Amino acid sequence: MAGSSIGTIFRITTWGESHGKGIGVVIDGCPAGLPLTEEQIQPYLDRRKPGQSRFTTKRAESDTVEILSGTFDGRTTGTPISLLVRNADQHSKDYSNIADKYRPGHADFGFDSKYGFRDYRGGGRSSGRETIGRVAAGAVAASVLKELGITVQAYTRSIGPVSIETFDASVIPENKLYMPDTAAAEKASAWLEKCMKEQNSSGGMIECVIKGMPTGAGDPVFDKLDANLAKAMMSVGSVKGVEIGDGFAVVSSVGSDNNDAFRIAENGHIEKASNHAGGILGGISDGSDIVIRCAVKPTPSIAQPQQTVTCSGQPATIEIKGRHDPVIVPRAVVVIEAMAAITVLDSLLTGMGSRMESVKKIWLDQ
Amino acid sequence: MAGSSIGTIFRITTWGESHGKGIGVVIDGCPAGLPLTEEQIQPYLDRRKPGQSRFTTKRAESDTVEILSGTFDGRTTGTPISLLVRNADQHSKDYSNIADKYRPGHADFGFDSKYGFRDYRGGGRSSGRETIGRVAAGAVAASVLKELGITVQAYTRSIGPVSIETFDASVIPENKLYMPDTAAAEKASAWLEKCMKEQNSSGGMIECVIKGMPTGAGDPVFDKLDANLAKAMMSVGSVKGVEIGDGFAVVSSVGSDNNDAFRIAENGHIEKASNHAGGILGGISDGSDIVIRCAVKPTPSIAQPQQTVTCSGQPATIEIKGRHDPVIVPRAVVVIEAMAAITVLDSLLTGMGSRMESVKKIWLDQ
Amino acid sequence: MAGSSIGTIFRITTWGESHGKGIGVVIDGCPAGLPLTEEQIQPYLDRRKPGQSRFTTKRAESDTVEILSGTFDGRTTGTPISLLVRNADQHSKDYSNIADKYRPGHADFGFDSKYGFRDYRGGGRSSGRETIGRVAAGAVAASVLKELGITVQAYTRSIGPVSIETFDASVIPENKLYMPDTAAAEKASAWLEKCMKEQNSSGGMIECVIKGMPTGAGDPVFDKLDANLAKAMMSVGSVKGVEIGDGFAVVSSVGSDNNDAFRIAENGHIEKASNHAGGILGGISDGSDIVIRCAVKPTPSIAQPQQTVTCSGQPATIEIKGRHDPVIVPRAVVVIEAMAAITVLDSLLTGMGSRMESVKKIWLDQ
Amino acid sequence: MAGSSIGTIFRITTWGESHGKGIGVVIDGCPAGLPLTEEQIQPYLDRRKPGQSRFTTKRAESDTVEILSGTFDGRTTGTPISLLVRNADQHSKDYSNIADKYRPGHADFGFDSKYGFRDYRGGGRSSGRETIGRVAAGAVAASVLKELGITVQAYTRSIGPVSIETFDASVIPENKLYMPDTAAAEKASAWLEKCMKEQNSSGGMIECVIKGMPTGAGDPVFDKLDANLAKAMMSVGSVKGVEIGDGFAVVSSVGSDNNDAFRIAENGHIEKASNHAGGILGGISDGSDIVIRCAVKPTPSIAQPQQTVTCSGQPATIEIKGRHDPVIVPRAVVVIEAMAAITVLDSLLTGMGSRMESVKKIWLDQ
């Protein structure tokens, strides 16, 4: 089924496999008149591309984006924006190991069950490279949000047993783990060295904060803003849990602690005195920061021998050699940020007609 | 925007407010030929209706469902199934308290931000009664799944600090907290008594297990089965976190522990030797049980005085009197079960044409 | 599949069968703050209800609409508006004739092919009563459009060989054929008398004009405004052709005649000097009247003996007795008007964010 | 808004402008296991590319398609198929004439109204080149349909005053006007010569026939197969009317002539004795040929001087020089065929779960 699109008015459709000719995305519904060039998109792709540190695969990819359509004179025209990244490093290589066996923790078995066969080269469509289209589209969404005074920032909150203890936004881009705490980043690096030595990998947690969000975005029932964010996040490969605001901590909380009191801010607006809700009440943005956390599983590709079966149903052992990221989290940070940007932008665009007075404001002005 | 529908082929649309004339759902895309009567749906509604125990509101509602369309001679016809539950207990009552003030932890402020005003009677559209349509549709989905050998069961995993320690499915319906552990249910009851005495409320956790799921359902990118489940769960009011399989525990896990080995089952099928993944790999069902957990926040309506503001922006204090459930979890159990059933059924129906051979099987048979 | 909904932001879902408990519609995405009562909707239903003239069936139905949700204090709240019309005249009656045989020109055979069986009572879901939900939703859409200065009016353009020769809007509601030409209406009545005497029925044509439409609504590719109108019109049972503006006359036209010159109107706006395009250029409204015409086939239920087969595949003869409308057109006029209103309103709501400046106008104003 | 996609399960998304870097389409939801190479797609593109005859523009484009994703070992994998055609002939050229003025009959004015500005080079997104993505996707759809024994063929039925009088499928590809009647093609050529001499252009009609269609495809209400076909057809630029079966001729028809009797075919199946309905009854395919006709307006680009206005609202005259097709019909034939193939394939894929027995056939087989 057509499951490669997300969004209602701002709608993206991604395509591409790890070892096909390229990866891309079509962004439909971007408002016209937004200044947009490849220079705004490339930095987002650079944050996820391989080879940034010793904890990422060495695959040689520049991941250079090309805008194929949808802009004119440096601005979006309102028509579909097609973005293309050609795959460079798709050397023919011996895939017989993974062609014949199901890698534990990977999508291989699911693909064969669903489709009858699969492109096994580098994981095919279920490769991490699938996220290139998401990130490129996220860069465009972030550009729109910026014009509305909204910023989206994701960072690594923990890697294995190491969690951040301080928050300094300025250091996030300075350590290759994208942690806002230099000391924690150093401890996490040591932990990852240990994992690598043991031919193992580590899980971690990403946090994403959206600031400057206006009130009134999101819908009250199935398209709650948090529901759409949860889908967007869980759709990123390796994410196994999503929480908003206090998240799972609410389980052992009581109402008097979990409720956020309302008060009048200095600018006269209504605001919440605390933010246990994480910026969303009843599915609708409440003006506080939107706070999302995602649990990311350890890289399933590990060099240790693992029990598995062949595609034809014979017991087998598999050892996944080659250089693999010992942790998914750092390169997924920008993917989470992208999905958050895409989702909140769509909520803003779909919600423009929620009141008769807004509809009149747009259509009676002519 | 049109946010009151969910699903692609099996698509439900709910409507209704707490103190309007009724609550209902239209189920579109249910396969024809399913035996269906009100007797199959009513038990689901009875599980969520008020007045089942001293921990639930006393509002007098029979929540009797009427099938208005879509069946003939006791079977579904393939056309939309419209289900109606009339509201009975919609007494005129003094709502000035909540009409003028924003209740902390409730959707009131969001609704006013989005729509300019709101139906404040009993929470209007953001009332817990909104879930009646979901539960009724879930009962229909569960009937279809049953014919495919698939069962969905949700239960209370924890209430406040009390978690289950044993699992006995037979006791779930026997305690009004829907816990599979009688001893834990007793402890949880004591905890809730304490909360009520302190004019407070408690959070909790619901777990849902889907058994008998075939392999190959779900999509690899945005419509991953876990992504759609996450949306469905987070769209339930008060759910603040969702996890699949090991969920947030993957954060501190390593690959060798988190990966599930494949092996050959006694029946010759391929199966996983463990289930850290929670039954979904790469967004596609892998044949193991699908395991979902949801964090549910404490009931925001508490009798303690809380700081808030009036709709016109004046500081105020609010005390929410009347009998309110001190915990949302028990009545939400069947809602979670319903949303899970709806979501997996839709994944099965949308995925029928994933292979040319399946398409031929249906259309060349005539 | 879920084919009972139409629209993206203003989205309606209809349900109900001819001889089930009732017929209804859920309208999702209606802007909040619109004054709405049953009194605005009922006149639309009255225009399509049976028994208005000797050319319509005598089935005794008041078709009284009840608003079940979505309004508060007489205004829409932005939440789903559920509208219900109970079926009154659903007498048990002998349907063995049509239960066992496929009526020529009817949907019976298609339903059995698709679903394996059908509710044959009065045509079930494919009855003309299915349009009640459309008309009720159209009344709501028309109320929104009215606030934007947009009017939608449909009327009968021809019945059998009789076409209108003059246009007087004031006489449309005065003759039961909804023709804007009293003389033509009289000729058409005589033609219908003849058809009835011959146990036959007649086709006809409906024209619909939308005035006051702003420029810039509709999309340039698949969701062209004319494409969505064509779908909406063709989805009405018995419509076999749709045309916009000059329609099929363009086939033998030349460019210099078919192109509409642009000029400056008295109010300084740009306008077209003629309207061969029917108000839509490149899929986008151009500010001229939108003009749509629909070809409606003759009522398939005729009392003459017709050759057919039984459901079990035996040759048979069928005579469809009872009082049937000898022409579908007059009662379909309001259905066409409703579908047009629903479609243009959705185009206005989905198009609100086409420019960055519009997005800022709504979201930076807070 | 996101209006560049069509279809529910077989869903295509097109992108690209006349003078951008290229044109493309992403096809999502194509069943896995279909043999597919560029050689199957290219012939469809060749049928619409410029320069085939003296009646088409000389723009030098090879319109060579590249499959960027979605196939492996020569077969579809079930993942998105991305198809790219690079624009070759995008010479810088003086567009000041059309940049500043609204061309009558073109989309220019609509685009500016909607988006505030437009890519005026060669019509930008509203160029005929937009159909390249449709045609490429249609070739893929046709390949799937072929495996189900379904063929789709479109041809020119009339050009200006010249209509076909005989039908010989074999001559369709042999005359550059794609007419199934060589004599008519010659007369039409003469007519077009006359138009060109007069700096004018001609309208025409395309007919499309779908053979081998199984019964039971399509939905009974809004997603009637004819409704979706009408949208697909009317979404093709220049189409101003669509009809199914007898179409507009039903207006003056009577029921006894318009109804199609049912009978038993030689193979024992139920069939219609005639086909006034054009293969669709009640929105569902009835097993007869599906017959669609589209009215195509004259090419709006003509060299004659025309009255118009400048973008800044000044009266002006425009003469559109350069070589333009004097008729749109011949090159649109394959576009209509493509849209028909895409639409009926989607109806087949979305309808696979219409009966419980079909659902069991797919999911209980494992």
List keywords for this structure.
globular; 5-stranded antiparallel beta sheet; 366 residues
Q: Would you write up a description of this structure?
A:
The structure is a homotetramer of 366-residue chains. The mean pLDDT of chain A is 94. Chain A has 366 residues and is α+β, with helices and mostly antiparallel strands. A five-stranded antiparallel sheet of chain A has the order 1-2-3-7-4, covered by helices on one side. In chain A, strands 9-8-10-16-11 form a five-stranded antiparallel sheet. The first copy, chain A, has helices spanning 38-48, 96-100, 108-115, 131-147, 182-197, 225-234, 255-258, 329-350, 356-363; strands at 5-6, 11-16, 22-28, 65-67, 71-72, 75-76, 81-86, 151-159, 162-163, 204-211, 239-244, 262-264, 270-272, 280-281, 284-285, 290-296, 306-309, 315-318. Chain A is globular and about 65 Å long. In chain A, strand 8 and strand 9 (162-163) form a beta hairpin. The first copy, chain A, has nine helices and 18 strands. In chain A, helix 4 (131-147) crosses helix 8 (329-350). Helices cover 28% and strands 21% of the residues of chain A. At the A-B interface, strand 1, helix 3, helix 6, strand 11 and helix 7 of A face strand 1, helix 3, helix 6, strand 11 and helix 7 of B.
